[in-house]
Amino acid sequence: MVRRKSLKGxxxxxxxxxxxxxxxxxxxxxxxxxxxxxxxxEFQKSLGIAKNILSDRLRTLVARGILKAVxxxxxxxxxxxxxxxxxxxxxxxxxxxxxxxxxxxxPGEKHSKLVERDTGKTIRLEVRTEDGRPVGPDDAVxxxxxxxxxx
Length: 151
Fold this sequence. Notes:
CATH topology of the largest domain: Arc Repressor Mutant, subunit A
Distance between the termini: 35 Å
Strand content: 5-15%
CATH superfamily of the largest domain: Winged helix-like DNA-binding domain superfamily/Winged helix DNA-binding domain
Order of helices and strands: HHHHEEHH
Mean pLDDT: 90
CATH architecture of the largest domain: Orthogonal Bundle
CATH class of the largest domain: Mainly Alpha
Low-confidence stretches: none
Radius of gyration: 19 Å
Helix content: 25-40%
Largest sheet: 2 strands, antiparallel
Shape: globular
């Protein structure tokens, strides 16, 4: 098996973010945590993931500070809860969902929906500048960090 290259020291915030998340199983675990799942068996049932893979992903998400393991109320198990760092992934999850809704479903095809708990209204994520103006990909540019000079 090819060992994954670490992007922990990369200058790009997207690369470092992907390094911290790990893989798609990890994002699906985070999705389920946002949906209220907390126990190992709940994640396993929801995802249909092998126990060894789930154990590894949960351990990694805890080590990276995205989830925290806490004793369950009944004292017999532990639960996994989103940390503040993990909760900050909410806009990422909404953006992935919106992209999938727009590009991966046929018109009229049924899919789950993300709605506001109190009103039932659909949630939309928009990208805006610091002063609140909407911005799209043609309006943005990445300011790259200059490469260090060779000695």
